[in-house]
Amino acid sequence: MDQSHIRNFCIIAHIDHGKSTLADRMIEMTGALRREEMSEQVLDSMDLEKERGITIKAKAIRLKYKADDGEEYMLNLIDTPGHVDFSYEVSRTLVACEGAILLVDATQGIQAQTLANVYLAMDNDLEIIPALNKIDMVTAEVDRVMGEVESVRGYKKDETYKVSGKTGEGVHELMEAIVKQIPPPHGNPDAPARGLIFDSHYDKYKGVVAYTRVVDGSIKRGDKIKLMAQGTEVEVLDAGYFGPRETPVDGLDCGEVGYIATGLKQVGDCPVGDTITNKLEPAAEALSKYTPAKPMVFAGIFPTSVSDYQDLRDAIEKLKLNDAALTFEMENSPLMGHGFRCGFLGLLHMDIVYERLEREFGLELVITAPGVSYQITKNTGEIIMVNNPSEFPDPSEITSIQEPWVNVHIITPAAYIGTVMEMERNSGGIHRHTEYIGIAMGEDKSHQRVQLDYDMPLREIITDFYDRLKSRTRGYASLDYELEGYRETKLVRLDVLVNGEMVDAFSRIVPPEKATALGRYLVHKLRGVIPRHLFTVPIQACVGGRILAREDIAARRKDVLAKCYGGDITRKRKLLEKQKEGKKKMKTIGKVEVPKEAFLSVLTTDDEDK
Fold this sequence. Notes:
single chain, about 600 residues, alpha+beta, Alpha-Beta Plaits, 8-stranded antiparallel beta sheet, 13 helices, about 25% helix
């Protein structure tokens, strides 16, 4: 199709603002699927996406749309995730588009991730079309949210479209705006082929399937291609587009979005952001690259049974093929055996990976408390990165410690400003800016919403900060953050000893002033979940050699005198002494079984526990 009739665009919004539902209406309106083939969130194909009602992976689909002017257009729609953990998916998608629909929930208004996605789209010079979704709901406040959109981003009311992804109201007008306002691609069809890889997945029959936006020239089935950055040379086994199912074609022309099958066995051989060109007639210059996603949260994953280690290794390697942001390396724990130290983009990403490993591969796993990566300068001048508490050096070897800080943006009703400020202060945050959203001079501020900007340590965000924020603001607050850099700090390693043996899965890196309180919490929590044994089990929290807290799990007592009816007292004493010696021996050689529930119980620290 001629480039002038192609539109490449994506839908961006905060989580749960209706992106996938709006995409469903567009698919239905253009006839890409028959009504009986439709289901809710068609593009959310993973079971976890359907169960949780969220988008995890960006999905592309080609739609044919006949506009009111009688012309037929090719619309390449990419549905993106809304959660902050998957913002890297959004950034990769935007590079493959010329425009974006900015979706705002008419019942909630502008949220933190809404603004983050707007800035991403502006950085990529995209044409942005603002739209209000869920206008059919009784709780929709169209005028108020319109005012927010105008005051925050400057879009006029006549520039903002009102739609309902559920009923289809206003979707036709939005489709017309797409073909009129979003510019067509501006590639050169006669130039050497250049295609940008913006995503990929692994297919056991076709190898790595690369999602590609063809910028110049064309890529045909059977072409010998080369990845300009990686240097990999392969033959195009198959090419096509998503409609929404994979639909093979002879090739992808200039300006089109689709997929090519490479036959490669590892996603690493076909990295996101690389440029595809023709091996025989290569392009002179590669397209702009992506900044690769860096893991921000680290946790250990171990099988509950030692014999499942190889199965876990195979499962993580397969999952890595479909999730380029996941990193892992081998880890060994004295108590838990062999496992892997994995890097994630955030807590939701960690939760999704953990659940997929258990569900899709049938594994029973234990996951350790999440942590971040610290930059430590040793006395020798050596600088090391530590993301595992067990690798934390002895304090006498450390010159300085730096930890990652993030810029946090919180949008909340004005009534909860004091609550949010108190939370930030207790978490070591530094206040930067406060701004009321969508407010006019002299207007009552009590019902308005406010944006609070803070700098705070990432380690505070990855524990339970988001859950407490939602709880304290009755679910009305939203949060977004981006990495700012590293700052110097003072930290210590808090260890937990169970029966005198250190359990590294419970170790934490914490500020010295919080070590005692957290140590008391951990030993108290563990005392309630570790089962009783035939001997007393002490649980201790310590920093270095100093014990901060201790609780004992009482021994499970067997009544050895049950069958002694009367008789000489020496018989009873002999039995009791024998039991005492047995317990002493058991305490020396006995092994404490730490159940899976014990590890899971200390991952969260809700307000009531604190």
